[in-house]
Amino acid sequence: MRAQCGQALGAAGPKDGPKAAEPLPHARLHDLRHIHATTLLLAGVPVHVVAARLGHVDPSVTLRVYAHVIRAAEASATEICAKAIGT
After folding, report:
1. Rounded to the nearest 5°, which phi and psi values hold at 16?
2. What are the pLDDT digits (tens) for 24-41?
């Protein structure tokens, strides 16, 4: 069966595919969780939604842990507002 699939696909194997420039850096599961939460917050997802996804019972936990992300987003919002009113 495997040989038939290889023939059907033109016998292209993994070694024939594109090569990665560099291997991905090592990341712990907790690191991926933090990246996920940070990405959601920077994308504008409400804190209570991110808190629920992380399993935080109270969104104040999420606000405390990710305050630096929220402050960065607020600064960005301030810059956008200033540009909009021509300051």
Report:
1. -90, -10
2. 788 898 889 999 999 999
Query: What is the distance between the alpha carbons of residues 26 and 29, in angstroms, rounded to a whole number?
Result: 10
Give percent of the chain above pLDDT 90: 36
* Dist CA 76 CA 63 (whole Å): 17
Q: Is the dihedral of CA 81, 66, 63, 55 positive or negative?
A: positive
Q: What residue type is assigned to position 67 of the chain?
A: A
Return the SS3 of 2: helix
Could you tell me the two tokens for 19? 């090569």
12 pLDDT above the threshold of 60: no
